[in-house]
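Tutorial, part two.
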Amino acid sequence: METLANKTTGYRRFSKPRWMPATIGDLEDMENRIRMIEKTLDQQIADLAAEVTNATTVKDSVLTLIQGIPALIAAAVAKATAAGATPAQLQAISDLQATLASNDTVMAAAVVAGTPAAS
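Running the prediction step on this input gives:
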């Protein structure tokens, strides 16, 4: 019998006439190949699940940061005011806070749009 090498898997198989039935060894070889493919697929699925979890965690962290900045600025302005700063001195910061708050929705939507959806 002639041996053929399969270029994609590296497995060797024997060419047989079409009428010759598979042997137990042939069936065991097929079962082993199927098990190897299953292991590969299991690992690929696990890797993909980890990637989706990571992307979700990063997205959630970025959204928390974006949405928390205006509150941090408001707290800083309140502390500065309590320490004697005048509204005129804090006007630039107050303007920045208002701009960030108004852009919060736009930035959050951009983060969500740039994050691949879990499938």
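The longest strand covers residues 3-5. In part three we will examine how such features are distributed along the chain.
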